[in-house]
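seq as requested:
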Amino acid sequence: MRVTDTVTNRGHEPEPAPLLLHVNLLWGELDVDSTEAVPRDAAAAAGDWRTLGPPGPERVYEHLGARRTTLTRPGLRLTISSSLPRLWQWVEPAYGVLALEPANCSVLGRAADRAARRLPVLSPGEERTTTLELAVEAA
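struct tokens:
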């Protein structure tokens, strides 16, 4: 499945345009083409993004440079590819689940992105096209 989304600022002022797509999955073996996984907070820093780990708090990581991630479970392989510049991974050990979140923003909200000078903004007349592809195969 491939989704292409185009957003245009038809107004006269720059407008914030954050986008985060969220896919919930059961835990499996994860392969991410990132250069580095950065923990969101101390709970994530205490864990490892590659393992479900012992029960404990949720863990969130940003995968730098990631454009593709593959989750493999018995009988199933799911690959998510995106044109978005950021990828977030949410792990909930108590439930054995994770979420993969291609995004152009952080998971901390507009105020945090604005303070970090990373809030995505579309100028008047500017257009942004985003693609997301989900490929499912038997493994």
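The chain has a mean pLDDT of 95.
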